[in-house]
Amino acid sequence: MSSDAEETCFAPATRADDATIERQYRLVRSRDIPLVLDAMPVIALVLNQQRQAVFGNRRLLDALGLTDMRAVLGRRPGELFHCLRATVGPAGCGTGDFCVHCGAVHSILLGLAGKESMRECTMIRETDPGTIDTLELMVSSTPITLEGERLLIFSITDVSHEKRRRALERIFFHDVLNTAGGIQGLMALLVEEVPGALREDAQLVHRVAEQLVEEIGSQRQLLAAESNELETQRVPLYIDDLLSVVAGGFRNRALAADKRVETRCGASPTPILGDPVLLRRVLGNLVKNALEASGPGETVTLRCDVEPVAVTFRVGNVAVLPETVRPRVFERSFSTKGQGRGLGTYGAKLLTERYLGGTIGFTSTTGQGTEFWVRLPLGQSLAGR
Questions:
Q1: Taking the chain, what is the end-to-end CA distance rounded to the nearest angstrom?
Q2: Each residue of 127-176: pLDDT tens digit?
Q3: Is the pTM above the cut of 0.85?
Q4: Domain residues of the chain, as ranges?
Q5: Alpha-carbon distance 268 to 5, whole Å?
Q6: CATH top-level class for 235-383?
Q7: Looking at the DSSP assignment, which residues form a beta bridge with residue 141?
Q8: CATH 3.90.1150.10 corresponds to the domain 18-158
């Protein structure tokens, strides 16, 4: 073991000597760990107590463009991946000023302390002379012990593409919603100002703009829900009013032409607590799907049953789902309506189960039609997370 007490701004600087690295490498090779690491779909290393690599899987070698494992041994993660900050510390990776803020170093130190850890890490590296690249990484550390030797399995997943996509999505939805909202606001003014002969056309454009804003908001909300970024609220809800608002949203839409949305509810006048935006979104998705499955002159029912411990919302229509479709109803992007569809029931299930704390399901039988139901425990689920 190296005995020189080198300076550091954060993690210990001391490194193991070559003989210790070789012994640890042979120890790992003598077990099944190489087979396990090579089976992992991510880059993985085995680090010693000094944060030095004593083994790496094939994906590590491929990522580094290496064929010889011994070229990896003794180097720390930031040094292997040419992290620019690994070169400015007094004793390499983990010892510089910036390393105090490095998610990878924090994860490794927690792992070496015996705690499993997962952190995000932003690495700025020089891939070629003068070429700077930024990687967004998800790293994890899992402590292991071999013959009394405390080691660490350190895995790396590149999430740069996902991070950039999410940033672009946020910018896109922000800008598009602003533009669509502006059109909606402008049309609301024009409806009152245009000559009478043009008023019906202006009202039509205004309704289309409202529907566009609603659809864009729905897609943004779904992405936020999938990313666990959706915020919920808790306000008093009157069920009769809620059903009226959901049904009223389809009153002037082409989708509901020659069809009816009928509401029935035996709810008490006492309000319940919940998130009105999410609940309207769930019920609205189900009503929209029911209308799409209905023919001219048919009725979609929107009703609820209030029990002492729960409220159950039900959306029904006369159509029957084919047997082959039923097992896949809640799958993401599965649809019988064509390519690019299928987020309605998936989104309803996601919002109901992850954010409203309820359950969702359906029945579909010949002679009785199809009924989707959403059951939410009172006093708990409607309050959000």
A1: 51
A2: 777 788 889 999 999 999 999 999 999 999 999 888 888 778 778 888 88
A3: no
A4: 18-158, 162-226, 235-383
A5: 75
A6: alpha beta
A7: 117, 154
A8: no
